[in-house]
Write a structure and sequence with these properties.
five-stranded antiparallel sheet, 12 helices, about 35% helix, about 20% strand, disordered N terminus
Amino acid sequence: MQPNIRALLKAGTVATLLATFLAACDDSSVNAPESISANSPDESKPAVGGAPQGVQAVPSTKAVAETIDELKQAVETGQGMGVVASIDHQANAKSAGVDIPPTTLIMLSQPALEIPLLQKNQLVALDLPLKMLAYEDPQGSVKLAFNGVEYLRERHGLGEMETLIELRNKLGKMAESASGSEVGPHEEGNKTTEEAEGIVVLASTNDFQTTHQKLSQAIESQGALKTVTEIDYAAEAKRASMSLGPTTLMVFGNPKVGSPMINARQSVALDLPQKMLVYQNQQGQVFVAYNDPEYIARRHEMLEPGQQAESLDIEALASVLAGLANTAVTGGADES
């Protein structure tokens, strides 16, 4: 039987916690504490089927690899975006001993569109970089999926912005070019979200530089975690002749953790790898924020009726992220 993760977290032993979690990936007996401060939807709302919350998906007339090639070509030919990273989740899953159908994620970026959203709400970074996911479902059909603009608007309280209209048009054009299918004007995900739903935010007792350094060190000290990318949005804003307070997104993960989640519901790859945001608001307060794994599981309807979250180690993953965040926001620079 595995050690109790709740006790490990209270003891502050992040390294031990993560090691235990990874060793327990196939053990449903692991316990975990409740999430620390995530905004959750009304528990009285009934569960509904259909498309995942806020996800827009269109069928592709091509194989996954060809769809991704067409998408990259569309990006290169006038959409104004750049490819930040390409993740072959099928290959990653194979390295972790998990067999999933072809599933490839492309991360995209265009500061001219992203910075205005971040100026409105820095927490938008938790849904950045922009992503498009091509995957073959269990029935052999290929789909191209991405987060709908309405989801971003509602989750981050963005209101009516011209930037969102431009973003919707660009994503639609790229999806049509890559998939060979028409993206209709009303094909947003069939469910809405609440503002700040599923976002965990912790106030830091440290300044921005110290908080960022401590979080980076906490992640890097875990050999099992791999950093995918780190984006300094304040620097991106400066290069685009715009202004933004300190805002840095760290993207990291481990196939042993993410692959079973993707195997349960492929669309969850839109919310993977894991992300943590360090930012400073206009009042000079520093925060660490991340997406609550239990919210992600609900959003993508990963669990079958009666299935417990422990079966996918979602609660354990939430504990790991809480431990990393707490390490970053407490103590001083010499106490990491």
